[in-house]
Amino acid sequence: MFRLFHGVMEQAQQSDVQIGAKLIRIHFHSCFVEGCDGSILLINADGIESEQDADPNAGSATGFEVVDDIKAALENACHAVVSCADILAIASQVGVSLGGSDWEVELGRRDSRTANKAEANTALPSLFDDFDELTHSLSAMGLDSTDVVALSGAHTFGRAQCGTCSPCLYNFSGTGGPDPTLDSAFLNTLWQICPPSNDGDPMTDLDSSSPDSFDNNYFTNLQNNQGLLRTDQELTSGTPDFSQLVRRKPERVL
């Protein structure tokens, strides 16, 4: 079965090197709303308002077509055996393994028959959150400082729209200037990629040193004051617990 996942994912990666990052984001956003039950995969229908249309997902949660491809291949090989929730979990793991890391996936998830768009709007962390808001959201889910750092480490691959980091580049905390803690060379690079006009809302790498690899360079970037999102940059200026975890640069970030 896992070979089937690898086959579909490797083919998808040929045309979209970011597919692993896209799928792990979908999986995280699904798990954050009433558990890892695949509810984010449900589309609008009678009695269902899709979580895909919630503000944290609309226009930014992508890669669903690859989940559909995996589902079709699985149904052809073993009809009605693997749940969609497990498909999403395995696809996330395979996407990460293609980028350089791995972990064992436990199976047996059951699919949700309902979606909760309202909770997706209120519970999911925002890309514009500051560090305190992020930790509050995650602690409400029973996650501690180690979990926050590990989950943030998934930003070792993938890309973000410039609009998500522009406040830190041009109007940090309403100051009319950039985040003063950002590395100056990194800031100059971001100014070139993400101009104030933000025409077309271009994309930039979450991890500028190895954007397509799932490694621990993200933590090195943070120690060099090169965090793209505000919550990334503030990981090293949070409590000593967070700073120490970042300095340890765990070999596996999940």
TrEMBL record:
Q: Name one GO biological process term.
A: hydrogen peroxide catabolic process
What is the E.C. number? Answer: 1.11.1.7
User: Keywords, A to Z?
Assistant: Calcium, Disulfide bond, Heme, Iron, Metal-binding, Oxidoreductase, Peroxidase
Q: Which SUPFAM superfamilies match?
A: Heme-dependent peroxidases
Q: Which residues bind Ca(2+) 2?
A: 156, 207, 215
List positions binding heme b: 155
Catalytic residues? 29 (proton acceptor)
Q: What does the record give as the reaction this protein catalyses?
A: 2 a phenolic donor + H2O2 = 2 a phenolic radical donor + 2 H2O
One Pfam family cited in the UniProt record for this chain: peroxidase
User: Where does the entry annotate site (Transition state stabilizer)?
Assistant: 25
Please tell me where Ca(2+) 1 binds in this chain.
33, 35, 37, 39, 51
The annotation note on the cofactor reads: Binds 1 heme b (iron(II)-protoporphyrin IX) group per subunit. Binds 2 calcium ions per subunit.
> Which cofactors does it use?
heme b; Ca(2+)
The Plant heme peroxidase family profile domain extends over 1-254
Where, by residue number, does substrate bind? 125
- Got any disulfides in this one, which pairs? 31-36, 162-194
A Gene Ontology molecular-function term?
lactoperoxidase activity
Give the function comment from the record: Removal of H(2)O(2), oxidation of toxic reductants, biosynthesis and degradation of lignin, suberization, auxin catabolism, response to environmental stresses such as wounding, pathogen attack and oxidative stress. These functions might be dependent on each isozyme/isoform in each plant tissue.
Concerning its family, UniProt says: Belongs to the peroxidase family. Ascorbate peroxidase subfamily.
| Name of the molecule in the record | peroxidase
Q: Output the lineage of the source organism.
A: Eukaryota, Viridiplantae, Streptophyta, Embryophyta, Tracheophyta
